[in-house]
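Hello,

Following up on my earlier ticket. Below are the three sequence lines again, exactly as submitted.
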Amino acid sequence: MSHEDVLNPKQMPHDPEKATLEGKNKFLAFWFFLGGETVLFASLFGTYLALNRSTSGENTPEHLFGLELVFIMTMLLLTSSLTSVYAMYHMKNNDFRKMQLWLGITVALGLAFLGFEIYEFVHYIHEYEFTFRSSAFGSAFYTLVGFHGGHVLFGLSWIVALMIRNSKRGLNLYNAPKFYIASLYWHFIDVVWVFIFTVVYLMGVV
Amino acid sequence: MSTAMSQNRGLGAAIWDYLTTVDHKKIAHLYLVAGGLFFLIGGLEAMLIRIQLMRPDNDFISAGLYNEMITMHGTTMIFLAAMPLIFALMNAVVPLQIGARDVAFPFLNSLGFWLFLFGGILLNVSWFTGGAPDAGWTNYAPLSTTSAGHGVDYYVMGLQISGAGTLIGGINFLVTIVNMRAPGMTYMRMPLFSWASFVTSALILFAFPALTVGLFLMMFDRMFGSVFFDTAAGGNAIIWEHLFWIFGHPEVYILILPLFGAFSDIFSTFSKKRLFGYSAMVFATVLIGFLGFMVWAHHMFTVGMGPIANSIFAVATMAIAVPTGIKIFNWMFTMWGGNIRMTSAMLWSVAFIPSFTIGGMTGVMLAAAAADYQYHDTYFVVGHFHYVIVGGVVFGLFASLHYWWPKMFGKVLNEKLGKLAFWPFFIGFHLTFFIQHFLGLMGMPRRYWVFLEGQGLETGNIISTAGAFLMAIGTIIFLVNVVYTSVKTEKVSGDPWDGRTLEWSIPSPPPHYNFVQTPLVRGLDPLWVEKSEGKKGMTPAEPLGDIHMPNASILPFMMSLGLFIAGFGFIYQVDDKGWLALVFIGMGITLGSMLIRSLKDDLGHHIHKADLEKDIEKGAGK
Amino acid sequence: MANHSNMTQQQDEFVKKQHKEEMKQQVISFALMILFTFIAFGMVILDIGSIFLIPTLLLLAVVQVLFQLYYFMHMKNKGHDMVAVMMYGGLGVAILTIITFTTIIWW
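Thanks for your patience. The regenerated structure is below:
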């Protein structure tokens, strides 16, 4: 049996993402990477917490942050997390078309989130002249939230690339792990956001 | 495909082979050569430092150049010499010890190497472009944020790139050890070197992200106008110190743990005894790794964190002496009553015990926070960390190279030359660094360009410099040995030391696929188990069949090259925004290569049963 | 042979049912996460000036994240032991880092 046949079995196994050794390796490595990412974001959160009172002029967290926008962004990202769960549900049932559909919805929600984030940054810079360079608080805020935004952008590009690459050939044991770890990445982005909206925004205006 | 290529090939093909290789054994060669070169560069820098400090008020090199020397000596030795040499050993040995055909991610393995190499080259390019980094290897703000020129920018970009490579390597070895062990190779049957590599990789995973963030903040401050470390704008310079040491202290355990593992294997092999207290050794390794994350602030006792914080970190630091002590005693008990062979590898290992213990004792002295106010930033500290890093890591590297050289290259390093290299290095090492403790207690501060006449520091410094020359002689003899061995000695069998672990059950150097048939592991020291039952080799765990192997690829090289180019763009866009073009070109190459990697399927290739049978006839089986 | 395919079909249906069951749990956890988010934002907008406000906000965030990790990312399923080791390892270092940056950096 050639490798090609091994990756395209007549009947897909129940956990296609972990059916091959490559898949198992990818699965574990990506989780470990997320363990490292936890420390990365903790360092950024720590820096933010150390500097969030080093404001200049009027531009304090209370003055800047509007909770309406943050609430909408939170709902968008939270929902996108659920839609990617649906995508993985259909992957496990070997329903490629539905998986692509749910991934598409995930991407749309993610794009909306990113759009709001860009709007927020532009708004701060133009309305308040609150920039990366204006105070230590500014540097820490844009770095923390920007790192998260960068993760969103990377996650979106990743999922879109996977969707396009595999649109014609459907699901097999070679690409199933790729879809699965991309969805893990997406969930992790949401995990980080939960702390950002709590620590940066909610605790910022309390 | 690759077997056909490896037959008649010229130099160009050989270079291309190494540029694209994903074979862990060849990547080990690459790490060894690159790490070895950086070790020589770092050593040369050390010699220049010692010549400058040979006599009072010396003007051998200028003050500015001296600062660059100490910075680059530390940075090079830690990041570009010790780390890659350890990765060379891990690559060469871990897959063989656990009975795997390759690492979990051969492609990422290659990417990790090329990132490290390009990061290292970027850092050293700074010598030729107007000055190397000069803010010390710890790069404390605000010294680093206000350092003129681009030296510190090179530090930031170079370490960022090579650090990414290290993180990738760490994750790769974690997954390899979790998923790729041969049947029967349970965790508690793994050789200590594999165990130590596992713990070290976990430390890399949790420590390097802190450095990544620190370097990003430093980069933003120096190149993009943010104010993280600028107290005038509300920033805080202590953030850098914490981030650096949250990474930096685990880093020293990242360096020493794999060599603790190697010593364990060496003591056991050359004493012809099972390692004494195997499970205690595993436990101690894990415990050192765990405690390694709770002690970083002992580098910052004099910062003013307050007595409570200082006490907590002092106690945690002293606690590390306990698992380390367990190890020291277990090594001695392993030798006790053993059938000891004093080979070069064993010589380095035996010399390691007292040398490292001295470094450990001064470590406990430094851990006493109140006393540290006296020792801080003196030569006492320099003496201490060279005792653990040279007496532990460098001795360990020499021991491991002697021990595994036959496995890597199929030839035993000359024993006479090996011992001849050992003695000047060993004596020189103690001459250089022992006296430095006393220089420090006499008040000589570290990192000073000159010392004054008539303060009683002359004798100590000249002794120290003389010792450094002896170490250089030892290193040169070792290099002569490498050259001599590669031209002279005949090939050896797969098992020159009468070994105990799996790597000695296959030919030296091993075939491309390591194991013709995956071995069945039946206990600790699996090869010894078989030997003691009168068998010649391992029992296979599978029938002879096709072997699936990964394909070679140039993409890791291209990805790293892209980041290297982008690095220059980031550094020089401060002067002229036109340099941003390099950022776009470089990142384009990197992201483009990543996209190709993502879109193009890489299914690997098979080595067929018929070819394997041919290899067995030539002796690949045993 | 026929018997065999019959078996796999049964097995298949069983697994699909399991997936459906799991999906139900995930939808419930999603509903709870939305609810927690509402509570968190509500408490801040309604300006509840209590010393328990910030601890409560953090607690809600932690619970949300646990839902995310254990249900959405399947950490509750078997085969995630090593995953848990490394995630909690990272979390340990993360907590130490945050404590440090809120206590011993001079202010």
